[in-house]
Amino acid sequence: MKNRLKKFDDLFIDIINNRMRSKYLDYIMYRVTYLGSAVFSAILMFSFIFFGNQNIRIMGIELFLVLGASQIIVHSLKRLLSRERPYKILEQLNTFGINLKDYSFPSGHSAASFSLATTIALNIPRLSIIVFFLAILVAVSRIYLGVHYPTDVAAGIIIGLSASLLIHFYLIEFVYSLGEKIWAT
Q1: CA-based radius of gyration for the chain
Q2: 0.90 cut: is pTM over it?
């Protein structure tokens, strides 16, 4: 199994990081990756909570729980598994001067972008195509920039999707009660 995952990683990191490379994608991927960052996620979530109508505020609280859960899982696995980032190991990798101090597995940006996309899509289905397209771009950008292996990204996607679905379908009453308590004061 480990050998198959390595072959998967080797194949797709070569395709995405080497063969797809272009000046246009260099520009796009370097910028789109920030849509999965902690700063962007927090700004979006708090904007929903403080500036949205009642439904958007509830979605903001849901995002708070989803992002919190997914990032706890991500950072626990990073510490537990301690997988080095590809740019520290692989030669011939196109890098962009990014130097991160934490570990590679799983991708926190991918988890965050899919947490955001799934939660928004569940609450506003007409935005599904747009938010998932952006989440996929963020996930691919992590491989394109040489900071994650494809399996890191796949794990991040699974974590983001799972956290969103579990909270939306099993804890939504808690989300609504939390919202009522916040705005009752």
Answers
A1: 17
A2: yes
